[in-house]
Amino acid sequence: MKYKDEHVYNIAKELIPTADIKLLRYHKGQKLDHENFATLTVNGNYGWMRLSEISNTHRRFGHPGVVERIGKFISGMAGADVKQGVYDDHALSEYKKRKIGFRADALEFAMKSAGSSDKEIHEALKYA
């Protein structure tokens, strides 16, 4: 999924509905690159995030991972811990483990089908 800065803003607004969150497109008269970056102010604190990082997180960990990533991003600016809604820490860690395990199994199967040695498979799985 290709995320836009509006997506980041909406998720941030869901995580901290009482905070003063603004999406910036212009800053000090200069147009910001909203195609590649999400630029927000949370309670007056300025911050930006690459949208490609969000898309990569979605590819690897799905929507719960994206919510966690944005929650960590805005918690630094808000100065408070942010709850991830229905996704508690244990559920997120279990979800990530399942996703990593699935990718590792698929990589192992593909490498065995291609005729790779056990040593090559072990080296590739260390970084899966």
Characterization of the model:
The protein has 128 residues and is α+β, with helices and mostly antiparallel strands. It folds into two domains: 5-78, no CATH class; 89-125. Helix content is 56%, strand content 15%. It has four helices and five strands. It has helices spanning 5-15, 51-78, 89-113, 118-125; strands at residues 21-23, 26-27, 30-31, 37-42, 45-50. Strands 1-4-5 form a three-stranded antiparallel beta sheet. Helix 1 runs parallel beside helix 2 and helix 3 runs antiparallel to helix 4 (118-125). The radius of gyration is 18 Å and the shape is elongated. The two termini are 21 Å apart.
As a percent range, the share of strand residues is: 5-15%
Tally of distinct domains: 2
Helix content: 55-70%
Distance between the termini: 21 Å
Radius of gyration: 18 Å
Total beta strand runs: 5
SS content category: alpha+beta
Count of DSSP helices?
4
User: What profile does the largest beta sheet have?
Assistant: 3 strands, antiparallel
Give the SSE string.
Answer: HEEEEEHHH
In brief:
With 128 residues, this protein is an alpha+beta fold. 56% of the residues lie in helices and 15% in strands. The protein has helices at residues 5-15, 51-78, 89-113, 118-125; strands spanning 21-23, 26-27, 30-31, 37-42, 45-50.
Could you give the topology of this structure?
Elements: H1 5-15, E1 21-23, E2 26-27, E3 30-31, E4 37-42, E5 45-50, H2 51-78, H3 89-113, H4 118-125
Antiparallel strand pairs: 1-4, 2-3, 4-5
Helix pairs in contact: 1-2, 2-3, 3-4
